């Protein structure tokens, strides 16, 4: 059974940082492409970042230079480092593979 479990979300002030984690079971992340997406209240799901089996990465323009995606294949865990957070980064963040998605972790950026 495939499971993706996100964690690390929190309330943080603008300019702050967080690291999100996605623990994966039932899949070996070394061999697959994975994504982080987010959904703000009242808005559509938005792609944030991808990491490919090659190790190459991609970022949405809105987060490039502030967020960093990475993976630890030994722990089978995906990460998203969020720096210089803005109020508009407030959303539920999900890790995804194909049609699989975790329950999400809430990031709230507010003073």
Written description of the protein model:
It is a single chain. Strand 9 (91-97) and strand 10 form a beta hairpin. Helices cover 0% and strands 50% of the residues. It is an all-beta fold and 111 residues long. Strands 2, 4, 5, 6, 9, 10 and 11 form a seven-stranded mixed sheet that branches. The chain is built from no helices and eleven strands. It has strands at 3-7, 11-12, 18-25, 34-39, 46-51, 57-59, 67-72, 77-82, 91-97, 100-101, 105-109.
Helix and strand arrangement:
Layout: E1 3-7, E2 11-12, E3 18-25, E4 34-39, E5 46-51, E6 57-59, E7 67-72, E8 77-82, E9 91-97, E10 100-101, E11 105-109
Parallel strand pairs: 2-11
Antiparallel strand pairs: 1-3, 3-8, 4-5, 4-9, 5-6, 7-8, 9-10, 9-11
Which terms summarize this structure?
111 residues; mainly beta; seven-stranded mixed beta sheet; 0% helix
Poorly predicted tracts of residues: none
* Large-scale geometry: globular
Count of DSSP H/I helices: 0
Please give the alpha-carbon distance between the first and last residues: 40 Å
Concise overview:
The protein has 111 residues and is mainly β. It has strands at 3-7, 11-12, 18-25, 34-39, 46-51, 57-59, 67-72, 77-82, 91-97, 100-101, 105-109.
